Amino acid sequence: MTSIDIDAARLTLALNELRLPAIKALWPRFAEQADKEGWRAARLLSALVEHELAERDRRRVERHIVQARLLPGKTLATFDFTAVPALGETVPRTVSGPLGLSKAHINAITAPSRRMRAFACRAMGDSWVGKGANILLFGPPGVGKSHLSSAIGLALIENGYRVLFTRTTDLVQKLQQARRDLALESAIAKLDKFDLLILDDIAYITKDQAETSVLFELISARYERRSMLITANQPFGAWNTIFPDPAMTLAAVDRLVHHATIFEMNVESYRRKAAQNAKGSGRPTKTADTSDNNAA
Ligand code: ADP
Ligand code: MG
């Protein structure tokens, strides 16, 4: 018996209508194989459905990567963990004190989300993102804060989370505009769709941006609900220029660190080291990376 006792053209139209492109593309080949090898009907159906789901996941991740505006090429695979002091493999997942950095720790904080379909999960991470906890990355310019935060963002997206990477001043500028349009609340609410907001270079906030306090409102709105990853080349003690007054600085820091993992990346600038190595080996010095958005 052949499988062509149905109207193939109508089936293709129906699969279009149902928005099942993977099944539409695959069913003729799968059906032929099923007939040849005598698959049970349930096996054919399940194989087609699995492919549709996998394809849908792939497209969603692709879409989320575009929306996240990550730094191109900055991945965990291209990050040299030996350049930052590792504290060993057994660091706790969430602490309130400063920490060194290990690859194992980064792997732990980028584990798959609970929302992912069970069959697609490799390891159900005890997720800090889902709980609205934060990561704070401190260190002087050039030590890899932006690279690492973008790479963490990418790993989380691949594991089913939604992420937005932005320079802090760019986002604050947008929120200031929203405030002028009397739409600050809804602008902040729109950012709720991102499980993680990466604010790069918080210390580069200008005086005028600090005075509007939109950043404080953002931090307060996300507190204990949605996660943030913040990079800074200034310790908390110097954060008074980021907010309108010391009381607000204290309140903001208090909310940020309440459920936070803090990394201190106090190592030599990777950029400077790379330039020196290039000079030493007689090769032309690699100029500053264009994707490096650090003005310092
Ligand atoms: P920061 O944000 O701390 O100023 P960046 O993340 O912009 O530093 O890093 C500066 C440059 O050096 C980037 O091109 C980045 O990819 C590279 N870099 C920094 N640290 C590392 C590292 N540990 N491994 C690989 N590349 C690194
Ligand atoms: Mg940076």
Walk me through this protein's architecture.
The protein is α/β, with parallel strands linked by helices and 296 residues long. Helix content is 46%, strand content 9%. It has helices spanning 8-17, 21-37, 41-68, 103-109, 145-158, 168-180, 184-190, 207-212, 214-222, 246-258, 270-280; strands spanning 98-99, 134-138, 163-167, 196-200, 227-232, 260-264. It has a six-stranded parallel beta sheet with strand order 1-6-2-5-4-3. Helix 3 runs antiparallel to helix 5. The N and C termini lie far apart (73 Å). It binds adenosine-5'-diphosphate and magnesium ion (MG). Adenosine-5'-diphosphate binds next to helix 5 and helix 11.
Annotation keywords:
single chain, 296 residues, alpha/beta, six-stranded parallel beta sheet, 6 strands, 9% strand, elongated, binds adenosine-5'-diphosphate, binds magnesium ion
Write a short abstract of this structure.
With 296 residues, the chain is of the alpha/beta class. Helix content is 46%, strand content 9%. The chain has helices spanning 8-17, 21-37, 41-68, 103-109, 145-158, 168-180, 184-190, 207-212, 214-222, 246-258, 270-280; strands spanning 98-99, 134-138, 163-167, 196-200, 227-232, 260-264.
Bound molecules: adenosine-5'-diphosphate, magnesium ion
Large-scale geometry: elongated
Q: Which strand order do you get reading across the main beta sheet?
A: 1-6-2-5-4-3
Q: Fraction of residues in helices?
A: 40-55%
**Helix and strand succession?**
HHHEHEHEHHEHHEHEH
